[in-house]
Structure to design on (1075 residues):
């Protein structure tokens, strides 16, 4: 948690790559993003990269004390000192607090505290205290790390001494240290060496992380900035409708590299400085750098110098910056009549295409067909056509900024597709290619009404990434490869050629790399998708096949998928599924599989009968044949393609139901017996998607699919293994299914797959299956034989959250047995479990609290948890906003209190902890209430704590819950009331707050545990005469008499005691009345 600075040159414009890339070593001193542009101290910026690296440093430091306990105890040569934002009140156990001064209980050999906070200055002298400080800081840990880095530029000097400081050139400190270790046997020197090595290791880790980040960044260039400025200048001026009043460079001189910034600023990546005058704000002084565009400090008043320091966030380009800063800019931008960059024109070719916005008929086209080679590369610069009273399309550049969206929507139906001429009569179909209206151009408006009613109910098991992705266009025609123009010319042949020319053009188009985005967008940008989709509506099979082959390839692109759906392509492809031609069926199904990757497309397939047709493709009688004929092989391929399409469609709930109603389950079960991996992958993929529905889980069990799923866990194909494990994960909620997995030998392959830790998706599926299977105790016994618990403990660190959730869930189930709790302790699994309590993932927190709570049932484990401050972390989770986390944390606290050495004192040490747990009785969630009641039952065993919670109003809050029908809550509520009766006048208070009468009715429950807890509570309450009267009036005696003969001794004694108290009161009353 320290920092140093030194610039490292970046090749772009001699830019200084100022990035935080190290923790406490050489790399750190080389790079850090600081707000000061000069050589002053500055402050560390919280940029996305810096924040990511800061979090890595925090993660390293937080876990240091349990990963390296000996090194964590090492006392720094000098304390790390900085101004903290933490209040003294956040420090609790382990610290001595006097006024606003806080010091740690741990001292060095001279008696000096390892952590000292005076006023707002904090001094820390060991990694152990740094770890504890970060735990205390909770949500402020990022700010504390930042402050520490800013105040300690070369922390390794303070930690190990000046001999280890960051130096330029060759660093000999490690060699000197190694020599010293060889010469003497000083343990402190050895620890120093270990710490130095650990810090160098962290250094390299952060360096690699930052380099990956840099490699992903898209940076501005002088050329792109100049183009954008020139474009904006074109639309600027004094008029009301201009986007800006003025836009000027601060310097007219341009260096050979295109930069206008002085050389000493170019090394910081700065390109130029602008003065922009919007219509609605003061002039803006802007810096354009390779990292982006931001506001600088403007010109200094008495000088002509620019104040270079950054004053705003960094934006990706100038237009994005101005959109955020000037509403008028955004408003006027939408009013502009934009010109477009046309295709480069060959010297011998004249090509003019103009969209007539008034005439919906065919547009004008002029061609000089003297061009010799259709694939000849066009090298001439772009030229602009004469407007001649026509509106031209918005340029790709403007579309890329997202500012032409409103005009695009209005003009969508009058785009290039209206320019297309009909295909020759040889294609037999009356519907011509040119009528893009016949390509369902009006479908966008029709769709809105029907979709809105279904949008809310349509759910998906995947995030709708396709729906959210922004339009991406090429930056300008100067950067486009020759393939782009060649493909566009082929599309024109498709539009105007005869049948033969169309087939040749389709074949030629397939010679290009259609997986390349440039080629895909070239087809779309010139209206090729409309042509390809219209070809599907012809009667020529060759044209249909050629078109589908291209659509299948380019529909890998999310933008193309959306356009195909918008143009009604899915409806036509669904009809093709009825074709007698097997090749057409295959291609149509595969293309549907690609397009149906987003919600609207899946809905379209269902609404037009696509699910029923796709399920029909699965009916393949040739599956079991040893030597199928070519025709039968094609039938198998059709079934595979159908399964692929159903896999994509099955990601929405309504489609899952449609597949089931169409009879898809038995057909999928039949295909699951296939020996071919290419068939099994989509089949199992569909099944695991559908297994989220109860009806499918039941069907998978009854159709005996578990055996095949288990069998394919041993496949060599990792994708297939993943889907099988995922299906078992979802189905194993059912006890019978868990038994079937064990009986068919599925537990051992699952255990074996745990060793494949590189494939995270597979690991997540396998750990999920193990988690659900471990709910059955017989399976846990098998897992113990296969050493699964030890392997799971090893996966508690350095794994993605989706894996950790399942790993911890599995350990939580295994922990239900004492022998497994001991195994986890011996494998050092408790520290990483406790460390996970500091996370934010809701599912992970629910599972880890359960696991820690189960481990705490063993006194030896509880000692470790207490030493790691685990109980405090559990208690802090009671403040989590998610009820599931609150409930799980409260359940986990119960065994911690039961097995702690001095539980009462431990609970009291949590400042505000008792008030927090009492206030949770106001929750509306039954599980939270039941768990909190259980925790209060344990807390109330200590008399002093019982007095405190009584003062916090526990009695009326418990009484308020008495009228509940939930047996789980009834049981724990009755236990809490029973315990709370032990203090002062609480028995009387429960009577006054109307808690007694509802308790009597608990005795009518079918749950014997509720009977036992209620009888104990009534026995305690019956010590007050008024409560006895209330019980008697509510018929308690008759109910309790039946329980006096119970085999449960606790219930028996409590029932008898309560009746005895009521009887004694009756006798006393009778005696007083009659003497």
């Amino acid at each position: 948690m320290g920092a140093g600075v030194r610039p490292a040159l970046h090749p772009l414009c001699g830019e200084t790559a100022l990035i935080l890339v190290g923790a406490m070593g050489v790399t750190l001193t080389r790079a850090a993003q600081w707000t000061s542009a000069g050589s002053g101290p500055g402050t560390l910026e919280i940029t996305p990269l810096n924040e990511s690296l800061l979090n890595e440093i925090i993660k390293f430091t937080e876990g240091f004390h349990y990963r390296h306990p000996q090194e964590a105890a090492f006392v720094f040569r000098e304390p790390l000192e900085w101004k903290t934002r933490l209040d003294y009140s956040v420090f609790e156990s382990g610290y001595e607090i006097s006024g606003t001064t806080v010091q740690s209980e741990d001292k060095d050999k001279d008696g000096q505290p390892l952590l000292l906070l005076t006023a707002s200055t904090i001094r820390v002298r060991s990694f152990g205290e740094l770890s504890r400080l970060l735990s205390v800081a909770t949500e402020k840990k990022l700010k504390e790390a930042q402050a520490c880095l800013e105040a300690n530029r070369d922390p390794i000097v303070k930690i190990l001494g000046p001999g280890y400081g960051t130096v330029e050139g060759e660093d000999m400190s490690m060699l000197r240290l190694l020599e010293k270790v060889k010469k003497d046997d000083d343990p402190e020197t050895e620890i120093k060496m270990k710490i130095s090595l650990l810090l160098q290791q962290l250094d390299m880790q952060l360096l690699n992380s930052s380099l990956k980040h840099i490699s992903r960044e898209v940076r501005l260039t002088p050329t792109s900035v100049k183009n954008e400025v020139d474009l904006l200048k074109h639309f600027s001026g004094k008029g009301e409708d201009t986007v800006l009043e003025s836009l000027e460079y601060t310097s007219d001189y341009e260096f050979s590299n295109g930069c206008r910034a002085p050389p000493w600023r170019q090394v910081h990546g700065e390109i130029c400085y602008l003065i922009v005058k919007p219509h609605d704000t003061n002039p803006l002084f802007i810096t354009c750098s390779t990292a982006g565009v931001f506001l600088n400090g403007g010109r200094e008043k008495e000088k002509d110098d620019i104040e270079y320091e950054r004053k705003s966030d960094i934006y990706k380009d100038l237009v994005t910056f101005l959109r955020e800063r000037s509403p008028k800019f955004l408003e006027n931008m939408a009013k502009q009549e934009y010109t477009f960059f046309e295709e480069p024109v060959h010297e011998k070719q004249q090509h003019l295409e103009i969209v007539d916005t008034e005439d919906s008929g065919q547009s004008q086209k002029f061609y000089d067909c003297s061009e010799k080679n259709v694939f000849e590369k066009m090298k001439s610069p772009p030229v602009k056509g004469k407007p001649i009273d026509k509106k031209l399309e918005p340029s790709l550049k403007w579309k890329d900024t997202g500012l032409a969206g409103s005009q695009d929507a209005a003009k969508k139906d009058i785009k290039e597709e209206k320019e297309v001429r009909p295909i020759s009569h040889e294609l037999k179909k009356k519907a011509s290619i040119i009528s893009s209206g016949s390509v369902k151009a009006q479908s966008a408006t029709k769709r809105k009404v029907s979709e809105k009613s279904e949008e809310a109910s349509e759910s998906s098991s995947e995030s709708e990434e396709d729906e959210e992705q922004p339009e991406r266009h090429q930056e300008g025609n100067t950067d486009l490869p020759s393939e782009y123009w060649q493909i566009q010319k082929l599309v024109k042949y498709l539009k105007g050629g005869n049948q033969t020319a169309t087939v040749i053009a389709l074949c030629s188009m397939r010679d290009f790399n259609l997986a390349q985005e440039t080629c895909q967008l070239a087809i779309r940008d010139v209206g090729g998708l409309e042509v390809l989709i219209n070809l599907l509506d012809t009667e020529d099979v060759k044209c249909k096949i050629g078109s589908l082959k291209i659509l299948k390839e380019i529909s890998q692109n999310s933008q193309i998928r959306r356009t195909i759906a918008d143009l009604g392509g899915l409806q036509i492809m669904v009809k093709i599924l009825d074709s007698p031609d097997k090749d057409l069926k295959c291609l149509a199904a595969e293309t549907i599989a690609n397009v149906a990757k987003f919600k609207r497309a899946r809905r379209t397939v269902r609404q037009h009968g696509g699910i029923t047709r796709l399920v029909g493709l699965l009916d393949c009688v040739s599956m079991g044949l040893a030597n199928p004929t070519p025709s039968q092989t094609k039938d198998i391929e059709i079934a595979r393609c159908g399964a692929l399409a159903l896999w994509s469609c099955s990601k929405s709930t309504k489609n899952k139901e449609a597949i089931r109603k169409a009879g898809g389950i038995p057909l999928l079960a039949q295909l699951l017996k296939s020996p071919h991996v290419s068939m099994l992958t989509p089949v199992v993929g569909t099944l695991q998607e559908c297994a989220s529905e109860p009806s499918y889980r039941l069907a998978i069990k009854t159709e005996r699919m578990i055996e095949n799923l288990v069998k394919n866990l041993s496949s060599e194909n990792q994708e297939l293994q993943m889907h099988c494990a995922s299906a078992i994960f979802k189905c194993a909620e059912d006890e019978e299914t868990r038994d079937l997995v064990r009986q068919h030998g599925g537990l051992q392959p699952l255990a074996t797959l745990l060793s494949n830790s590189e494939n995270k998706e597979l690991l997540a599926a396998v750990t999920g299956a193990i988690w659900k299977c471990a709910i059955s105790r017989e399976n846990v016994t098998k897992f113990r034989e296969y050493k699964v618990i030890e392997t799971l403990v090893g996966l508690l660190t350095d794994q993605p959250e989706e894996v950790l959730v399942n790993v911890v869930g599995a350990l939580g189930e295994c922990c239900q047995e004492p022998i497994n709790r001991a195994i986890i302790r011996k494998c050092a699994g408790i520290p990483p479990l406790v460390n996970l309590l500091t996370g934010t993932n809701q599912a992970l927190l629910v599972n880890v609290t359960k696991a820690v709570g189960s481990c705490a049932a063993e006194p030896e484990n509880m000692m470790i948890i207490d030493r790691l401050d685990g109980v405090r972390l559990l208690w802090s989770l009671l403040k989590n906003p998610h009820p599931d986390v609150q409930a799980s944390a409260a359940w986990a606290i119960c065994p911690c209190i039961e097995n702690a050495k001095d539980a009462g004192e431990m609970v009291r040490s949590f400042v505000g902890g008792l008030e927090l747990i009492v206030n949770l009785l106001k929750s509306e969630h039954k599980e939270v209430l039941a768990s909190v009641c259980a925790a209060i039952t344990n807390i109330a065993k200590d008399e002093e704590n019982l007095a405190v919670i009584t003062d916090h109003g526990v009695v009326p809050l418990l009484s308020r819950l008495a009228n509940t029908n939930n047996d789980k809550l009834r049981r724990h509520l009755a236990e809490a009331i029973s315990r709370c009766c032990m203090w002062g006048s609480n028995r009387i208070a429960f009577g006054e707050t109307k808690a007694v009468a509802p308790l009597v009715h608990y005795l009518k429950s079918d749950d014997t545990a509720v009977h036992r807890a209620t009888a104990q509570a009534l026995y305690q309450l019956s010590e007050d005469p008024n409560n006895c009267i209330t019980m008697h009036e509510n018929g308690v005696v008759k109910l309790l008499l039946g329980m006096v003969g119970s085999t449960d001794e606790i219930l028996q004694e409590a029932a008898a005691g309560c009746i005895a108290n009521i009887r004694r009161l009756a006798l006393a009353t009778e005696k007083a009345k009659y003497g």
